[in-house]
Specification:
265 residues, alpha/beta, 6-stranded mixed β-sheet, 6 helices, 16 strands
């Protein structure tokens, strides 16, 4: 990567792997769909500088499931940063991810950009919340990394996406987050998962962006739980040294027989 070349970041989210690779989630084999997503990622004309995994890496929180995640992704030999979602177990993640390509840093610099990864998970709950300690840490980190353009990553969406059931299980204290972010114009981008669909919104010069899941997709603008026929995918970001960025969703073709009668998962 040259000094002026943009960073290429691939965001993957909501993998929902199980302890064994033969398990299905609502009719979709999550291990196989992640394999196809990673194959497409490997065929990109440019190798990503970083993989960013924004939570729900497993469905069953088992050590074996995290080993499956690592076994699939580590051979790409791309620096991989991660954070937990509501289906994850942080202590197990910390123990399982031993490959040197899996990095536990939550505040780090790459190129001209700074990255801050937040844990919005609440044990035993589907919704998200940022603790007082996390918010204080964020404030401190934003002071220190100023004026470098900054990406904030978390699992839960901090704003409404116009889907009634998902809006009830997003980040519960978004105003606390906004009160901090609004003080720092070098924050350019907030990325998240959880909603299993592509979403983009601009708020006070900050772009809020989600990525499709690498497995099942949720129907946009649905009042109740509903699956979508959209294919699995991931999101790419090109981050320029002056704080500009471009982003696009990439989807794969994956054969699936979804259970559209499901009321949840």
């Amino acid at each position: 990567m040259g000094n002026d070349a943009p960073l290429l970041i691939a965001q993957l989210s909501d993998l929902h792997l199980y302890a064994t690779p033969d398990r299905e989630l609502l009719g979709l084999n999550t291990f196989a769909s992640l394999e196809v997503v990673l194959q497409k990622l490997q065929r990109l004309p440019q190798r990503p500088d970083q993989l960013l995994l924004t939570g729900d890496l497993t469905q069953d929180e088992s050590d074996n499931a995290y080993q499956q995640v690592q076994d699939l992704i580590a051979p790409l030999k791309i620096p991989t940063y991660w954070l937990p979602g509501n289906h994850d177990h942080l202590p197990t993640m910390e123990t399982a991810f031993t490959d040197p390509n899996f990095l536990a840093h939550k505040s780090y610099r790459m190129g001209a950009w700074h990255f801050l990864l937040l844990d919005s998970s609440v044990p035993g709950k589907v919704y998200g919340h940022l603790s007082t300690q996390s918010l204080s840490w964020l404030h401190q980190q934003l002071e220190q990394c100023c004026p470098h353009p900054t990406v904030i990553a978390l699992h839960h969406p901090p704003l409404a996406i116009k889907s009634d059931w998902l809006d009830q299980i997003g980040l519960q204290n978004s105003e606390d987050l906004f009160a901090i972010l609004d003080q720092y114009p070098h924050v350019k981008l907030v990325v998240f998962g959880h909603i299993h669909q592509s979403f983009e919104h601009q708020r006070r010069q900050v772009s809020y962006v989600s990525t499709p899941s690498t497995c099942i997709q949720f129907a946009p603008h649905s009042k109740t739980f509903a699956l979508d026929e959209a294919q699995p995918g991931f999101r790419l970001f090109q981050l320029h040294s002056d704080g500009r960025f471009e982003t696009a969703v990439h989807r794969v073709m994956f054969s699936q027989t979804l259970d559209f009668s499901a009321k949840g998962y």
